[in-house]
Structures are given as structure tokens and as C-alpha cells.
Amino acid sequence: MNSKRGIHGAWSSRWTFILAATGSAVGLGNIWKFPYIAGENGGGAFVLVYLLCILMVGMPIMMAEVMLGRCGRHSPINTMRYLTEKAGLHGAWNAIGWLGVVAGLMILSYYAVIAGWALHYIGHMASGTFQGVSAEKADSIFNTLLADRNTLIFWQTIFLLLTVTVVIGGVTKGLGVAVRVLMPQLFVLLVLLLVFGYQQGDFARGFSFLFSFNYKALTWEGVLEALGHAFFTLSLGMGAIMAYGAYMPEHARIGRTVVAVGFLDTLIALVAGLAIFPIVFANPTIEPGSGPGLMFVSLPVAFGNMPGGLLFGSVFFVLVTLAAWSSAISLIEPAVAYLVESRNFHRITANLLLGLLAWVVGLGSVLSFNVWSESLIAGFNFFEFMDFLTSSVMLPLTGLFIAIFVGWIMRPQSVRDELSDESDRVFWLWRIIVRYVSPLAVLVVFVMGIYKTFS
Ligand code: PFF
Q1: 338 and 75 in contact (C-beta within 8 Å)?
Q2: How far is it, in rounded angstroms, from Cα 312 to Cα 318?
Q3: pLDDT in single tens digits along all 455 residues of the chain
Q4: How far apart are CA 102 and CA 278, in angstroms?
Q5: Does residue 249 form part of some domain?
Q6: Longest C-alpha distance within the chain, in Å?
Q7: CATH, residue 301
Q8: Is 330 in the pocket of ligand 1 (CB under 6 A)?
Q9: Closest CA to 330 of 221, 167, 106
């Protein structure tokens, strides 16, 4: 089954892989979530723990995922099937592929809804809705949006259409071209916003908020949150990176590549924080730890009351949309690849079918913000439930299985052969981390996360 080049094509270079993986990694998690959870958990101390998690858990597991993908050269499901059959292992290990593909689609269902808000806000911002607006007014605009399911469904649909349009184009012409166009734009926009925040906002306060080492504010839950976020932000445990690894050139060095992706993802999260907080602090009525509202309520207020805010506010939401877009394509690609390989689907049909599936499931999230807001599953509304089930259960579990599979189950020689371009030192360091440190850390996160939630 495995061949040097899979049936879906390959990235034109190692650099395209880096852009694609970074495109997948950088998304709502970096621009919206990271800044506020860092703020809530003691700023600098949290950032330090988060960096450690990226380094000791995220990057080693990412390296394992890319390696598995490149070894199998197929969708995560068939890659795992190939590897387990080749090694004569129990078929239960294929669950790594299945869990990942299903989690990806589940995440896409609600990711498209939130990305739809960002799309909607581009028009709001550009048309001047937020000019001179008060915090109360911005709050009511946001709540009006949440109550209006037709508008939510409209933007969710547009975002999913954007996503499948790219993925239909295939790996080289669709995904490869999209990331080469989108990612540089995203970097430029972010730098522009950073400059804007520096000039117009309270940069010193924003900086110290994000980097002051307030150890007292860091709790055990904060540490768990940092580890969980490391998974989400690097797109791990979902087959996304494994699928992208399958399209990687044969002799590209995985270690270096993964370091580049992890570095870029972290850099963008930090720069996003440095761009957002100075703007937030320029407006004294805004709460820095206001969670989901930070991006959709507080930031519009900040932009609406600043010189140049109309332009830069619109630019900001374009940026968020681009980041979410390049992440969403990686959420659907593993399932598309599977349907094309194993069920003889045409890429177009596979995309439309899976897009429709994500759309239908996403309706549950849309409704959970209005008519279903009181309907709870285990104490969560539908959107929260999907988020919890994927981020807190499926991703850590798949990540744990990947670490165990690569560190303990696969023959060490097969792993070494696949990573033959790495130096001995890099290989052994990685192997020790992936055998001991990563699984233990993930196990702790998983057990504690479930315990905290249901106790
Ligand atoms: N890493 C993305 C973010 O930080 O927003 C989210 C994501 C994308 C998760 C793709 C998983 C994935 F497969």
C-alpha cells in the first residue's frame, strides 16, 4: 500500500509543508484563546508552562505524527492500518486513525460556527457599526448575533464552502497554493496589528500583563489548561498533522521541520497577545480575562474608539478568518483522503458530503447559542459538549496512544529507519521524551481533566 508518493500528491517542498502545518496550527486557538487563558492564569508563569508543554509534549508528539504519516503515505486511517498490518499488531491500534478523523470533523462542525462570527464581524467593522461604541452596545450587538440563528447559519455555511473549495483543489493545487497565499498575508497583517497596538494602545501594560511572572496566579488547573492547549494549538491528536505528513517530501528532516512549525505557532500566539492586550488596555472599561467575549465584544469596543480603528478592526477580523480557514482545511482533509482512498469517492463528492455532515452537526452548535441554550448534556450545552469531548477527551487520548504506539509498540529499528535523517543525539533525546515524558504528562492531563470536570 505504501509508496514513496501517496495517491493524493505531495507538498512541492519542505517549506510548503511548514506553511501548511503552521496554517493548520495557527487559528482561533492562537488569536482568540491563547491570549485570554494566558491572562487568566498568571501571564508569564502560564506562558512558561505552556512553552514547556509545547517543547516536551507537543513537538515530540508532532514529530511522531509526521513520522507515522510519512511512513504510511495515506490518510490517518489507512496509514495506521498499514503500519499495524506490517508489524503484525492488533487492529485496535487503528483507533488512532479513526479517533483522529472523527475528532477532526467534530471540531470542524463548531469551528465553522465561530469562524462564521469572525466573517460576520469583518462587515460589521468595515461598515462602522462599532465606531464610538460603548461596551454595553458591543455586548448587545454580539448577543443579537448569537440569538439570530439564520445569520449564524449563513456565515457558518459560507465558511464551510470556503473550506471545501480549497480542499477540493487537492494537496498541491488546493491546499499548497492556499497556504502559500494565506500564510504570508497573515504574518503581514499580524505585524501591522502589532505596530498599531504599539502606537495606539498601552503597550507597556499589555506586555507586563502577558509576561509578568505572577506565580501565585498559576494553579494546577492552569498547568492542565496549558498542556491541553498545547495539543489544540498544534493541531495534534486529530490526524491533521499525520495527514499532512503523508504529503511530505521523503528526505525532509522531520525534527527541524517540527521545530519550525512549533516555533512559528508559538511566535504567532505571543505576537497575537502582544497585539491584542495593548489595544484592550487602551480602553479602561475592558476586562482582559473576559473569555470568548474578548475578541467579539472587547476588541470591537477598543477598535471603535481608536484612531484608525475602522481599518485595523476590519483587518483584524480578516486575519482571524484567514487563520481559521487554513486550520479548517486540515480538519477535513484526513476524512476526504480516506473516502478517496478507500471508498472510491471523487474529491468533490467527498468534500461536499463531509462539508454537509459538518454543517448538519454544526447546526447543533448554532442552536446551542439560542433555542437550545437550556438543553444540556452532562451539564454542557451542545457546543460546549462538542468542545469538551474533542479537546479534553479525544485529543489527549489519541495523543497518548500515538506516544505509546511510537515509543513502545513500533519496532525501534523501524522508527529509526523512518527518522534516518536525524542525528543520533536528536533521535535518542526525542525517543526518551516520547516514551516517558509525553505519555506521563498526557495521562496526568487526561485523568485530572476528567476528574476536575465531573467532581
Ligand atoms: N490549531 C488550531 C487552532 O489553534 O485554532 C485548531 C485546530 C486545527 C485543531 C486543526 C485541530 C486541527 F486538526
Answers
A1: yes
A2: 10
A3: 444 455 666 777 788 888 888 889 999 999 888 887 787 777 778 888 898 899 999 999 999 999 999 988 888 999 999 989 988 888 899 999 999 999 999 999 999 999 999 999 999 999 999 999 888 898 899 999 999 999 999 999 999 999 999 889 877 777 777 777 877 887 888 888 888 888 888 999 889 888 887 777 777 778 777 887 899 999 999 889 999 888 888 777 889 989 999 999 999 999 988 888 887 788 777 676 666 667 788 788 888 888 888 998 898 898 889 889 989 999 999 999 999 989 999 999 999 999 999 999 999 999 999 999 888 888 889 998 998 888 878 888 899 999 999 999 999 998 999 898 899 999 999 999 999 999 999 898 778 767 877 77
A4: 39
A5: yes
A6: 66
A7: 1.20.1740
A8: yes
A9: 167
Domain with 218 in it: 14-454
Interacting residues of 249 by C-beta distance below 8 A, sequence separation 6+: 10, 11, 13, 14, 17
Asked whether residue 7 is domain-assigned, the answer is no
- Say how many Å lie between the CA of residue 72 and the centre of ligand 1: 22
Atom of ligand 1 lying closest to residue 240 CA:
13
CA of 412 to the centre of ligand 1 (A): 30
27 pocket-lining for ligand 1 (C-beta < 6 Å): yes
Q: How far is the CA of 330 from the centre of ligand 1 (A)?
A: 8
- Give the amino acid at 360: V
Bridge partners (DSSP) of residue 380 are 377
> Does the beta carbon of 321 lie inside 6 Å of ligand 1?
no
C-alpha 395 to ligand 1 mean position (Å): 11
Is residue 9 included in any domain, yes or no?
Answer: no
What's the whole-model pTM score? 0.90
Whole-angstrom distance, CA of residue 125 vs CA of residue 129 = 6
207: in domain: yes
CA–CA dist 144, 138 (Å, integer): 10
**In total, how many domains does the chain have?**
1
Burial class (CB in 10 A: 0-12, 13-18, 19+), 215: exposed
